[in-house]
Design a protein that fits this description.
alpha+beta; 26% helix
């Protein structure tokens, strides 16, 4: 047997590999950070034999409650990721699996590779409605890429969308892939109607360093980008710094920050109720957008989610709160599950890359319902 994670977004430490029925593993923490939860590795072995893998010390992970009722994903071809029998008890995640091929990959969620990211933005730039811009570089020297979809005009709304501030939340870039494929479809009616009214500014991956390094939550130097929006620096959080500068340059009328939640098995939004300038106008926009989402897709719900901030108590270092306050605009954090959507469970795949992709496309249909209301 052999286990390796020496590839894009790989993460695992092998403790013991002597017994197929008792493989012992641990997850590496993000660099210069105590956060850990994301894993991604390949097992080379003999097929058609039961293997039992134990990932330990998870009571110390970033979100221990995220392991309850969680099922890991596996793939033979790195294209189709399916759920495998998984149990969690006393800080140990146990995966029982009988592989049908000699090589099998396991991950916390369907990975979204850096190569796929590069392919996505390269494909998008070839469309006449898309312009690509490199805003700057990450600490590891990777591009911070912005895609502008639509022809700028002062009469149009400026809709911003960012994904993967937390790199292990790969469902966020699957979501953005769905958004881009719909927006750049010349025969899509929602896209045509939206691009008459709005210009989209999209950052498909806010944290490419953490993504490649196999991090859950931080960038190359252990910084949580979603706590940097008030005072980012080029030394520690250039990813946020350069995106903020572009926002100041072009303006923001709507902001969607796409994430995944480890523990809550539903899709939901987190709003800006706690920002100082929250008022009836912003509440109406939030309510209308949620109602539109509920009408568009049964994947969305508004019963389960985060507790709402008390008035004036929002954490303005968080992206959606800072943007909502700074630009007085509709600003939401979108959360998708790592587990499954309990309202529409799927035993074989759970919440998946494909469902994230479709949820992104559905969200555009809801944006169309509120786009005319965004400005005062």
């Amino acid at each position: 047997m052999r286990i390796t994670s020496q590839f894009d977004s790989g993460n695992i430490d092998v403790v013991s590999l002597e017994d197929k029925q008792n493989i012992q593993l641990k997850i590496k923490a993000d660099n210069q950070s105590e956060f850990f939860q994301w894993f991604h590795f390949k097992l080379e072995t003999t097929k058609d034999t039961l293997h039992t893998l134990h990932i330990s010390d998870l009571e110390k992970s970033a979100y221990p409650e995220g392991w309850v009722d969680y099922q890991a994903v596996a793939s033979y071809d790195r294209q189709t990721w399916f759920r495998v029998p998984t149990q969690y008890k006393d800080g140990v995640l146990t995966i029982d699996f009988e592989p049908e091929c000699d090589h099998v990959y396991f991950a916390y969620f369907a990975p979204y590779s850096y190569e796929r990211h590069l392919d996505l933005i390269s494909w998008a730039q070839c469309h006449e409605q898309c312009e690509i811009e490199t805003l700057g570089e990450t600490l590891d020297g990777r591009d911070m890429t912005l895609l502008r979809i639509g022809e700028p005009d002062e009469s149009k709304q400026k809709v911003w969308m960012i994904a993967r501030q937390h790199p292990g939340e790969t469902m966020a870039e699957w979501f953005v892939e769905g958004v881009l494929h719909k927006l750049l479809d010349d025969e899509d009616a929602h896209a045509a109607a939206l691009l008459e009214k709005a210009v989209f500014y999209i950052v498909p991956n806010m944290n490419p360093d953490g993504s490649v390094r196999g991090h859950l939550r931080t960038n190359a130097v252990g910084v949580n980008l979603n706590r940097e929006w008030q005072t980012p620096t080029m030394e520690k959080s250039p990813e946020v710094f350069v995106v903020r500068e572009k926002m100041f340059e072009v303006g923001v009328d709507m902001f969607l920050d796409v994430h995944g939640d480890e523990a809550i098995p539903y899709n939901f939004f987190a709003g800006s109720e706690g920002i100082p300038r929250y008022d009836d106008r912003l509440k109406s926009l939030e309510d209308n957008f949620k109602a539109a989402m509920a009408a568009v897709t049964p994947e969305f719900q508004d019963e389960y989610g985060y507790p709402k901030d008390e008035p004036g108590q929002a954490n303005l270092t968080v992206g959606s709160s800072w943007v909502g306050q700074e630009f007085d605009c509709l600003s939401y954090t979108i959360e998708m599950p790592f587990k499954d959507n309990n309202n529409l469970p799927d035993f074989d795949y759970g919440w998946s890359d494909r469902r994230s992709y479709s949820f992104g496309q559905d969200t555009l249909a809801a944006v169309l319902n509120v786009v005319d209301q965004l400005r005062k």
